[in-house]
Amino acid sequence: MNWSALEALISGVNKYSTVFGRVWLSMVFVFRVMVFVVAAQRVWGDDSKDFVCNTAQPGCRNVCYDHIFPISHIRLWALQLIFVTCPSLMVVGHVKYREKKDLKYTTSHKGSHLYANPGKKRGGLWWTYLTSLIFKAGFDAGFLYILYHVYEGYDLPRLSKCNLPPCPNTVDCYISRPTEKRIFTLFMVVSSAVCIFMCICEMVYLICKRIQKLLRKKVQADRRMFAETHEMALLSAPRSGFRPNSPIRVDPTISIQNLANIKAEEVAEKK
């Protein structure tokens, strides 16, 4: 399979991804695809040829091999890598759809744009990106479970017992290079677990950032509403200098001597 073409296609998601997304993509193509292509395929290349059972009964070896290896690790990992990387195409497709829609809008509205930045994770694109993360983490977790369920763990025993027909009795079967295969299996399992962890971290980051943005908008809206209410209260207050819920204002230009003279004049008028 041409993994370089898939890498070139998926690498376009990098410019729309967060830091966690870029680390995830590096993990997939450096620690999983490269190891899979360069080393793992060679380790499992002689799997069927070097599988040996201590019997000469025709068909017994094939039946025991099918029982011990229901599905090849290589084919299972190839399916896993394809399924895990494909959800990123959802983001690329959504961005291309936005760019095409923005181009049509610009053509019909004389240069004005529908999206300031089609690749910015807002609105529907934010949900598409979050959904792709859920799919990637789900596919990785699902294939880890399948591998554990099919092989009853992530270990490869050196000796396997088989008593399926047409074997005449319980026979001993041996696989080639079990230690090396065990190491590669654990490496692929650990790298898959790290990728799941990175997807979860990115989901938490996106959700927390979205909540923080909504709270900031709410605070700004509350401040704006308070400012408008205060301004309306000032405009509706009496022009004589009185304010709502405020004490009576006294003219600061009136001195104590002036007040005494005013009182003296009032007493003289009464007489």
From TrEMBL:
Annotated family: Belongs to the connexin family.
GO cellular component labels: connexin complex
Superkingdom of the source species: Eukaryota
Transmembrane regions: 23-44, 76-95, 126-148, 183-208
Residue stretches making up the Connexin N-terminal domain: 42-75
Membrane topology: Multi-pass membrane protein
GO biological process, one term: cell-cell signaling
Keywords: Cell junction, Cell membrane, Gap junction, Membrane, Transmembrane, Transmembrane helix
InterPro entries: Connexin, Connexin_CCC, Connexin_CS, Connexin_N, Connexin_N_sf
Organism per entry: Seriola lalandi dorsalis
Subunit structure of this chain's protein: A connexon is composed of a hexamer of connexins.
Recorded GO MF terms: gap junction channel activity
Localization: Cell junction, Gap junction; Cell membrane
Annotated Connexin cysteine-rich domain residues: 139-206
Function: One gap junction consists of a cluster of closely packed pairs of transmembrane channels, the connexons, through which materials of low MW diffuse from one cell to a neighboring cell.
Protein name (record): Gap junction protein
